[in-house]
Design brief:
alpha+beta, 75 residues, 3 strands, three-stranded antiparallel β-sheet, binds zinc ion, globular
Length: 75
Amino acid sequence: MIKFACDGCGRTKKAEESWILGLAAESIGVQSARREVNILSSWAEPEAVHPLAVHFCSDRCKEKYMRKLFKGEAA
Ligand SMILES: [Zn+2]
């Protein structure tokens, strides 16, 4: 069985829990490299096991992660 950990707080997902799923996209263009995360409307296993998938147990963790992502980019 595959285990998912929250990318915000590190908690492990329980089977019955409904988590937030996102797919990170890294696009390296001519002018800049930028990272973005597309939040999916529902949890789906094929996307959840994707190498670029990110998993969050709550909105709070999602927001924390996004803030960190964009702060890191600015630094
Ligand atoms: Zn979490």
